[in-house]
Amino acid sequence: MTxxxxxxxxxxxxxxxxxxxxxxKGGGNETAAAGSGGETVKVxxxxxxxxxxxxxxxxxxxxxxxxxxxxxxxxxxxxxxxxAIVEDGASDxxxxxxxxxxxxxxxxxxxxxxxWTSASRKAMLPVFEKSKxxxxxxxxxxxxxxxxxxxxxxxxxxxxxxxxxxxxxEKGFKTYFLVGSDYVFPRTANLIARKHIExxxxxxxxxxxxxxxxxxxxxVIAKIKAAKPDFILNTLNGDSNVAFFKQMTAxxxxxxxxxxxxxxxxxxEALSMGPALxxxxxxxxxxxxxxxxxxxxxxxAAYQAKFGADKVTSDPMVHGYxxxxxxxxxxEKAGSFDPAAxxxxxxxxxxxxxxxxxxxxxxxxSLVQTGYIGxxxxxxxxxxxxxxxxxxxxxxxxxxxxxxxxxxxx
Amino acid sequence: MDSTFLLGQxxxxxSVGSIYILAALGLALSFGLMRVINMxxxxxxxxxxxxxxxxxxxxxxxxxxxxxxxxxxxGGGLLGALLETTLVSRLAERxxxxxxxxxxxxxxxxxxxxxxFGATGVSVTAPSWMDGAVELGxxxxxLTRLFIILIAxxxxxxxxxxxxxxxxxxxxxxxxxxxxxASAMGVSVRQVDMFVFALGSAVxxxxxxxxxxxxxxxxxxxxxxxxxxxxxxxxxxxxxxxGCAIAALMIGVVSAMSQVFVDxxxxxxxxxxxxxxxxxxxxxxxxxxxxxxxxx
Lengths: 410, 296
Description:
CATH class of the domain at 158-285 in chain A: Alpha Beta
Strand order of the largest sheet of chain A: 8-7-9-10-11-14-15
Number of helices of chain A: 13
Strand content of chain B: under 5%
Number of helices of chain B: 12
Mean pLDDT of chain B: 88
CATH superfamily of the domain at 158-285 in chain A: Response regulator
Radius of gyration of chain B: 19 Å
Oligomer: heterodimer
């Protein structure tokens, strides 16, 4: 080997390591507000700060860290300041699993707040079961899962999707087209949706999947045009939604021509997609920024004071925020940071007022909460057009799709 | 199966294929001439998208997109020239090192974009003259898609004209056919290399603009097209421009037509199987080039 070749090889290796360092920086830690030398308790915050899911997850991280800061400012939990260790899941389930083990095994955190895609949750589940730690999961999901080590605060299917379908049926829509990203949430959600649509005497006129992060929708849109559905149920996640709505608009299929109900577009996504693009489309959530209650007003004011007056608040953010407070209440009730004791205390707490309205966990580790349907206006705000008459009890296993399965913990 | 839907899919395939043409042309050019595999090519596509985003902020209104195409071509070309002089030309004799080094560059550029523009990506709104569609009987062809096909056709014919008729084109062809002899005849092969690399990068920049019309511009947008772009180059017959164009359209149409039967996710599998099968019968791709450089 010549000298020149050696130098070249070194140059390449140097470049590679620079790149690796750069990656690390993106995925690195940031530590929020540790106490001034006093005793601290470590918790993990694990969301995608980079990649296709960052559009949604960065704001959840902000809300979780904000709740931690607020609790610290008010004196902490059982006299201890909370030290948040923030990690980046990088929109990649295997990174989520790896960072979750780092948090539970090396950092020895008391609990972890995080996750968004069901793929990331499924990847983290074995880590939390093995380390007997507790994950607070803030996002609506497909159900069909029941672990003593995960607190499912986001909606179960019967708290988000089934209300959406019931509303659509009431409105008289007969044929449904299902579009989703290709991973566990949309696949399972659509399995359940299909059972309920067909069980209700209506018709599924198409079911299409796009790889997560995919941006080429010409084929899907051609099929929608051919099927001429009354209603589209959209379970695309992340910035694929931008491409989908852009190409739908270019094809003349705007939300006022074909109603679209999205299960993963909240205020934040609507804003960054450009409200003009998604104006008139529907969403089903357990929280909208436009909800009127004193806790919500306080939450929005605090968030906007911290991150800017033009920032919006959304369902998963509020779930992340509320999770931190319920964890604090459960720790205080249990008198311990032990995850098993905290879980047992959390499911027996009384309903507390939150920006979501009064909510509480029940024995199946899921949250009792109200369902809402909203329609986006030109400013990117949801006008609430329907709400469930009462808070809905969560059902992890849809009885029609998974008959005989129940979630019994502890 | 109704014929409107099938015809629509052929059109969609051509439109997707034209994006692949724009994304792959630069790769085909630099591989054809220099045997360089440029892993940072996707990042130039991505930067083209961000240049479009910035240009449209500066030049709002109907002229935004033409201005963005121009700016992205110039910006992409300059970046390509920079990459070629500082890195690729210095590693010219060592293809594997170039591969690693350009991959490193791609990671650095992605992270830089993340730090500058944010991880969540930005959105480019197409000017209003691009809304709407051309109605062709029962078929409705969105103007954005037609615009993309037009841009690809212009890039392709411009490139062909340049290589076939201009003096610099003559030099490029000479260097391509036999570097050593061309060099001995007084052609500055170094300058030809840089010109071709910059030219390919300019086309990549334009590819970034058309991607911005269809979807969000994110730091990783280049990555999602680079794999297909490599497939196109291989299928087209390593380094042939006509082959590259035909291969891009083939992959576009195969992926669109397979979506008649399977969903978008599975059509990727079908497309890959098609490429593998095709290469079984024509291992040199659509157009095989007999070049001394490949005979080694």
